Amino acid sequence: MNMDEIGNKVKDLFSRGTKASKEALEKAGDKVQDFTDKSVTKIEIHKIETKRDCKYEEMGLKLSQMLLEGASITCDNAEDIKILNGLQEEIKSLSEQIKNKEQEL
Fold this sequence. Notes:
Radius of gyration: 30 Å
Oligomer: single chain
């Protein structure tokens, strides 16, 4: 083998090594990006779950307060039902947001 052939083989090896390294780094970068995206989505889900849990707590406190004050929770008590329905709608909306975020994962 002459020097030109050896030089060409070395260049070829370096070229293949560089190409393989570049492909590996691109794949790793894609994996890191995917992990980051999923982590952000999981954090968003947790925030929405926390808001929803607060609404459940608010609803429970409101119901407890109403009952302690002697309120009768019936369809005849429109203002109380309106408050509870509003809280229930917020809870439903937050639950749907959580479901949508989970589908992103």
